[in-house]
Amino acid sequence: MAAIIAITFYLLIGGCVAKVEVSELEELRSAMMITQLALSQQAQVLFRMVNGTEHVQSSCLEETCCPYPYQRVLDECFYLSTKKLSWSHARQYCHGMKGTLAMPINVYALESFVHDKGGSVFVWLGATDEGQEGEWKWLNGRPIKSEDWSGSQPDNYDGNEHCMDLRPEWHPPLNDARCSNKQRFACQYTS
């Protein structure tokens, strides 16, 4: 009889252990299903993000995309400095930002951008007549439109104005100035 009680007791305990193990397994299975669902949702979000990035990349091919801190102005990317530097130091600064002093295709679009961001500040641009006195060109060799110069500019005042600045309050806005003047400048991103 004692043996029967022992066997019954053993079976009861074993059954309880088995029931405990089964309930733990069911909890683990439930937790695993929840984790799988969460991972599936995260994968969908990631997939949408990747597709969104591809969309942005493809639209960047169609339009101009500007890296930070440059801003898009029509189809060009510009940065207006808050620092005041000489023309040559401004040029070096722009090179450090993977750009050049601004050489806008549309001077009036850049003028509007500068006016909106900085008010009536004088801003260095990427043009000079240092190669040949009176022969003004953008740094990339493109000629400057004569109608973009203000009034009697360029006038080479005191025989020492060989760098171009933009003056947003002037119409047209281009002026020749002393390269040693310290003033703000506009950089243009070049890819």
UniProtKB/TrEMBL annotation:
InterPro entries on file: C-type_lectin-like, C-type_lectin-like/link_sf, C-type_lectin_CS, Ca-Dep_Lectins_ImmuneDev, CTDL_fold
Signal peptide start and end residues: 1-18
Residue ranges of domain C-type lectin in the record: 73-188
PROSITE patterns recorded: C_TYPE_LECTIN_1, C_TYPE_LECTIN_2
Coiled coil: none
Organism domain of life: Eukaryota
UniProtKB keywords: Disulfide bond, Signal
Protein name: C-type lectin domain-containing protein
Organism: Cherax quadricarinatus
